[in-house]
Amino acid sequence: AGVTVETDVAVIGAGPVGLFAVFECGMLRMRCVVVDALDAIGGQCSALYPEKPIFDIPAHPQIEGAALIERLETQAAPFNPLYLLGRRVERLRGLDGTWELGTSAGDQIRARAVILAAGAGAFGPNRPPLDGLAGYEASGAVRYLVARREDFRGKRVVIAGGGDSAVDWALSLKEIAARVTVVHRRPKFRAAPESAARLDEAAARGEVEMAIPYQLHGLAGDGTRLSGVVLSTLKGETKTVEADHLLPFYGLSMELGPIADWGLGLERTHIAVTPATCETNLSGIHAIGDIATYPGKLKLILQGFSEAAMAAHAIHPRVFPGEALHFEYSTTKGVPAA
Ligand code: FAD
């Protein structure tokens, strides 16, 4: 499983800053592979505020998160980056002057240099702290997204959470599942009002069972196959709901994860870099955007863009040793046709 590729620069993180790094590297004739844990590019802009206007991107008095990402993708497109999405970079090791990265999908990426544009870390689901969770995750009994709705036909499904995902999937899966139980701590849902109202109506008709106010307490089963989900109230009263699947929808969180173990100089949850090059304590590994820190750092997209330019210029001699780098404006150089 996975792909084996060689490239000039491996970019970890397809947020706004990682995407602009592809452009800056491309202008210096360096090819990029971009890896992101999410299934879509755009980092925080896409995952957290696609429809919110941003007001401090130069020359855009106002631009929504998703629109900014679309333009950055278009700007990087002439340089044909390879996007490897839906996988996390787990391993990084140095091999005679190059770096090798391993992902959760089994990819092997060999690169002359690495640009870490990993924000606050990889996005992943918020997981409930339940004993034995890993075994049920591995078997697919506990899942954080619905990739194939048909998987739940005729199954007893427990959905936990109070946001749009919980409500929308309860409404969708009730059509095909044997039973759907929604577990939430309070009667009020943080979902689109029409959807929440439809869920109340479905519950009144007995199409969905509501376990309110309950929270997840434990998993019953043989360690891989689930037989029930144990719920508890805040007072500690418990009950078990028979179930084949548990779908916790508790939102996304970011965690530095494996990056913390790569021997990089950390300042709490950030990576310390030399400002002029954005190089970390490891030669050939540069950090830019939200994850990078130095005196005077501002965690702003526009500052990340300038760090992308500095990192690309600093990396050039590693990719083209002995070749002089003449500074040129984009107006002089132009870009290849996309
Ligand atoms: P991110 O956008 O965080 O992207 C990092 C990516 O790296 C993620 O997609 C993550 O999944 C991936 N990743 C991390 N580790 C791994 C790994 N090991 N393997 C694979 N992938 C990995 N900034 C402004 O300048 N102006 C604003 O008005 C503004 N408004 C904001 C409003 C909100 C609500 C929020 C939440 C943020 C706002 N920001 C704003 C901040 C801005 O979004 C961030 O500064 C910006 O997204 C940082 O970009 P980045 O590319 O460094 O990282």
UniProtKB/TrEMBL annotation:
It catalyses: 2 reduced [2Fe-2S]-[ferredoxin] + NADP(+) + H(+) = 2 oxidized [2Fe-2S]-[ferredoxin] + NADPH. Transmembrane segments: none annotated. Binds 1 FAD per subunit. It is an enzyme of class 1 (oxidoreductase). Gene3D superfamilies: FAD/NAD(P)-binding domain. Keywords: FAD, Flavoprotein, NADP, Oxidoreductase. The keyword NADP applies. InterPro entries: FAD/NAD-bd_sf, FAD/NAD-binding_dom, Fd--NADP_Rdtase_type_2, Ferredoxin-NADP_redctase_2. This is Ferredoxin--NADP reductase. It comes from Paracraurococcus ruber.
